[in-house]
Specification:
Number of strands: 8
Number of helices: 5
Strand content: 15-25%
Shape: globular
Helix content: 10-25%
Length: 142
């Protein structure tokens, strides 16, 4: 299965992956209307540690502990992708606590959010990958 991988040595810390993610998941066709004057809440985020920057995204684990810990059944694995049903999420944040990668985060509402590889955006690859100018984020099988 293809997954998102990050080459830290190429990450510039430009945050374009975050903007592209937020735009792709906004449902708005115009990027300026979707993002201007809005505090974005992307499903991928940049971490900075000294001079090192890297993108953090869901790893879609083989045996995801976040799915096992979800008491409402909002998280599930479909075709290798860990997905969230926001209507089932009760906002207990247990999945946030157990994710070893910090990839599950609070959303603007009561539910959590995480990368779902842009499966709902009908694209051939995730928006963060397409928007990375330095190719630090790749979508491939390893």
């Amino acid at each position: 299965m293809k997954r998102i991988y990050v080459n830290e040595e190429w990450c510039l810390g430009c945050h374009l992956c975050e903007y592209n993610c937020a735009y792709a998941n906004s449902g708005i066709k115009d990027m300026v209307k979707a993002l201007k004057g809005v505090e974005i809440n992307p499903k991928i985020h940049i971490e900075e540690s000294g001079k090192i920057t890297y993108a953090v995204s869901c790893r879609h684990c083989e045996d995801p502990i976040c799915v096992k810990s979800c008491i409402s059944g909002a998280l599930s694995k479909k075709d290798g992708i860990v997905c969230i049903d926001k209507n089932k999420c009760i906002g207990c944040f247990t999945c946030i606590l157990v994710c070893p990668y910090g990839a599950v985060r609070p959303s603007d509402g009561h539910a959590v959010q995480k990368c779902e590889l842009c499966i709902n955006n009908s694209t051939d690859m995730p928006a963060c990958v397409k928007g990375c100018p330095n190719k630090a984020i790749v979508y491939e099988e390893r």
